[in-house]
Amino acid sequence: MVRARRGAQRGAMKHAALRALFLGLALPAFGCGGGSASPSGPSTPAPSPTPDATVGPAGGTVSAAGGAVRLVVPAGALSTSVGLTLRAATQVPLDPHAVGGAAYVIGPAGTTFAVPATLSIGFDGGRAPSGVETADLRVHLLAGDAWQALAGAAEASAGQAAAPVAGAGTYGVRWLGPREPCASARDADFDFWLGSWNYRQSNGGTGTNDITREGGGCLIEEHFQDAAGGRGRSVSLFSRGDGKWHQTYIDSSGGRIVLVGSLDGGRMVMNTTPTERTTWDPLDANTIRYFTESTSDGGQTWRLTFDSRYTRR
């Protein structure tokens, strides 16, 4: 069974308790069984999706999602008429570097353009990794289970990212990563979290976490898994923009949390809101206390709302 993290739910991800506390959301319950499956008959092929537009040798434009995504096919890109589709992607990697809700699939599969088409994707900047510059976001192609930067992709601006594309596939807006290696002493603030850990909550929930340094030394990457296989990922970085640490966490239940803060007396303290904070407190070289608190008096007093431990394995 997936471990509890969200109060009434017994199966949430690592930060689901934070989501419940900070956002007041409710997750569906995850059970350990019970109920019976409906009998299934012979499978039938899924019907082909209705084309969003039919484009021929003369070229044309396909748009979807109320115009948020648009594909401009130039003359000569197609030799025959093709019913093209543009649909929101439903299966993408769990990746905190990607902009949430900004991935689309060009179909039908196997379609290629003799002359590159231009794909433009509108996105919500609030769902990009926290602490990064919008100009460092680009359209990427999903190749297998990893995003691949596209040659010729333009800098994103004003909630739009565009790139030349060669054919059908899954495309999304993603952060390129740090522009150069980081050597500031502040980039090492969170190094005490690096390593492989066992994770245990005060209520008995357990999991494992692997924390690595990536991005030329700029990034702290988290790979979390709970006892039932639920996964979470985060990227943490010291932002040159505001001189603070930013963490963007996502999980396989659809959760997303942004925390911002700084090192305070050897502890990393980050806030989701002015009244809710999370602390990583290294008790010794092999133990970190990870807990959350809330305040209702402007920060004069703080109330413990969640408590857990990391133990190095």
How would you portray this structure in words?
This protein is an all-beta fold. It has 2 domains: 16-25 and 182-312, Calycin beta-barrel core domain (Lipocalin), CATH 2.40.128.20; 53-175, Chondroitinase Ac, Chain A, domain 3. It contains 1 helix and 20 strands. Strand 17 (267-273) and strand 18 form a beta hairpin. Mean pLDDT is 87; it is low at 1-13 and 16-41.
Keywords:
single chain, mainly beta, Lipocalin, Chondroitinase Ac, Chain A, domain 3, 2 domains, 6-stranded antiparallel sheet, elongated
CATH class of the largest domain: Mainly Beta
SSE string: HEEEEEEEEEEEEEEEEEEEE
Going across the biggest sheet, name each strand in turn.
11-12-13-14-15-16-17-18-19-20
Beta strands, count: 20
Low-confidence spans: 1-13, 16-41
- CATH homologous superfamily name of the largest domain? Calycin beta-barrel core domain
CATH architecture of the largest domain: Beta Barrel
Largest sheet: 10 strands, antiparallel, barrel
Please, what is the average pLDDT?
87
What's the CATH topology name of the largest domain? Lipocalin
Shape: elongated
Relative strand content: over 45%
Distance between the termini: 22 Å
Structure in a nutshell:
The protein has 313 residues and is mainly beta.
Task: Detail the topology: elements first, then pairings.
Blueprint: H1 16-23, E1 53-55, E2 60-64, E3 69-73, E4 82-88, E5 98-107, E6 112-122, E7 137-143, E8 146-149, E9 160-167, E10 169-175, E11 195-201, E12 206-214, E13 219-226, E14 231-238, E15 245-251, E16 256-264, E17 267-273, E18 276-284, E19 287-294, E20 303-312
